[in-house]
Amino acid sequence: MRDLNKKPSFQSVFAPGKFESQLMNGDHTPTPMVDDEGKELIDPFCIKDQPQKITFQDITSAAFKIKSGIIKTPCVKSRLLNTGMDIYLKKDFVQVTGSFKERGARYALLQLADEQKRIGVISASLGNHALALCYHGQELQIPVTVVMPVVAPIMKIAACRQYGANVIVDGMDMGEAKRIALKQAKEKGLIYINGYDHPHIMAGQGTLGLEIIEQVPDIDAVVVPVGGGGLIAGVALAVKTLRPNCMIIGVESERCPSYHAAREAGKPTYTSIQSTLSDGLAVPMVGYNAFATADPLIDKMVVVKEEWIAIAILKLIENEKCIVEGAGATGLAAILAGQLDELKGKRVVLLLCGGNIDTTVLGRCLERGLAAEGRLLKFTVTVSDRPGGIAELCTTLASIGVSIKDIIHERAWIMSDIFSVDVKVVCETRDRQHAEQLKNLLHQNYHRVVFGSEDSFTLSPIANSNSEKK
């Protein structure tokens, strides 16, 4: 790996471009970013044709240098039942800023030359990387500038400012924010630190793998959330070096399967993404350095549905008292979906890598998880419009312990019978068996009962069509 303290030239190198809106070249790589004068803007440490692989020595160096500023997070045995696996949870969401990103951010800052520490660094980020960089920049007294797009969560923007960073809120998406950040880096001599593909970032994230090996003996598999690839690159290298037979499994959402696409193409490739519960993984193209480092070490990639991520968030809160964001729950989602059944009877570590979930999103996740598990039901039933008709329905539900969450009735749109009323009910049951009991009771007592909607999610095992390393 070349000397990263040496200030690089910003001339004639391509970099990933404005992902969300920019036209793509024929090979599905982004067109070059340019400044206002048409000159190319680059990320000099993340070059398409010159990927940098990190080494195990880079990770051990990072572990030694960051240990005084990073929390050694617990890795505890899970209380989840009926998975058939011996599951351990690596709780890296308990870092000060709520995610594993602190490991790489601190190491990247510590590795700067003295002059560069005085000048400062810059990055573009939606949240976790920005928080980590700002916090450790304040701790190490290194000036930090972060460019956050206008869609970034307001609470994360405010938190970055509280850490004393220069926060620029500009750009409609991450691609535009990165272009602005690279332009500032070129003009002011700042080092741009990519949140997932900078070699020092990957080495720092790899320290998480070293801790796992130390905390859990004889592990059979580590399940890692995958976005830009920096985390799995560092963790896979650390774990495989010390435990060559341990499986490394990557998991990503079906709404942003950029690593799955890269594996199929044999190189990082642009992938269109959609809004997802695991927004921390929503990277349209994995890093060049991360892919070169990680791909030979990954045994299997899994793509999970959004509903399983919601269920995993719900299970972690109920059973483990862990509030995690969607990205941190993807590993458990793959297990619950039946996509990792080959790990039954084995010792498995799941990385709970982030806990910065927006409170409104958390509420939606819990409701969607309850609905997908069959514990939150929606149905419409036609009852008599005589006095006591709706009360009788409520009594019927109460008789088996069903809790009504919401109820409305409609008269004007019932054309077939003016003496009837449609009652729409959202209710909560204990489990799927209790829900079946409710359905049977309603069908016995009412002629017309309609449950759910046509586009509702059905909780059933997923056929495994994910890629494995040959």
UniProtKB/TrEMBL annotation:
Reply yes or no: does the keyword Lyase apply.
yes
A single BP term in Gene Ontology = L-threonine catabolic process
Concerning InterPro entries, the annotation shows: ACT_ThrD-II-like, Ser/Thr_Dehydratase, TrpB-like_PALP, TrpB-like_PALP_sf
Read off the CDD domains from this record: ACT_ThrD-II-like (cd04886), Thr-dehyd (cd01562)
Q: Where is the Tryptophan synthase beta chain-like PALP domain?
A: 67-354
Q: Which protein, by its recorded name, is this?
A: L-serine deaminase
Please give the family membership noted in the entry.
Answer: Belongs to the serine/threonine dehydratase family.
What does this protein need as cofactor? pyridoxal 5'-phosphate
Q: Which SUPFAM superfamilies match?
A: Tryptophan synthase beta subunit-like PLP-dependent enzymes (SSF53686)
Q: Name one GO molecular function term.
A: threonine deaminase activity
Give the matching Pfam families: PALP (PF00291)
Q: Keywords assigned by UniProt?
A: Lyase, Pyridoxal phosphate
